Amino acid sequence: MAKTLITAALPYVNSYIHLGHLAGAYLPADMYARFLRLTGREVLFVCGSDEHGVAITISAEKEKTTPQGIIDKYHPMNEQAFAGFGMSFDIYSRTSLPTHHETAKEFFKDWLKKGLLIEKEEPQFFDESANMFLPDRYVEGICPNCKKDGARGDQCDSCGATYEQTALISPKSVISGKTPIVKSTKHWYFKMGDFQRQLEDYIESHSGDWKDNVLQQSRSWLKQGLNDRAATRDMKWGIQVPVDGADGKVIYVWFEAVLGYISATKHWAQNNGLDEHAWKDWWSEPKGEDRNYVAFLGKDNIVFHTLIFPMLLMSKGDMILPQYVPANEFLNFEGKKFSKSNNWGIFLRDYQQDFPGESNADILRYALATNLPETKDSDFTWKDFQAKTNNELAAIPGNFINRVTQFLTKNFDSKVPTLSGTYQHLTEDWKKLMHFFDQQAWSSKDEMIASIPSEFKQQFNDHDCLMLASLHWGMTITAQHYHSFRLRDAVMETMNIARSANKYFNDAEPWKSIKSHHDECEKTMFICSQVLHALSIVFAPIIPHSARKIAESCGKEAYIGDHNTIGLNAWQWIAQPVLSEGQYIQQPPILFSKLEDAVIEEKIVSMEQESLPEEELISIEDFKKVKLRTAKIIEAEAVPKSEKLVKLKVDLGNEQRQILAGIAKHYTPEALIGKTIVIVANLKPAKLMGMESQGMLLAANAEDGSLGLVIPEIDAIGSEVR
Question: In Å, what is the CA distance from 139 to each residue of 135, 227, 257, 262, 344?
Answer without folding.
Answer: 7, 22, 21, 31, 25
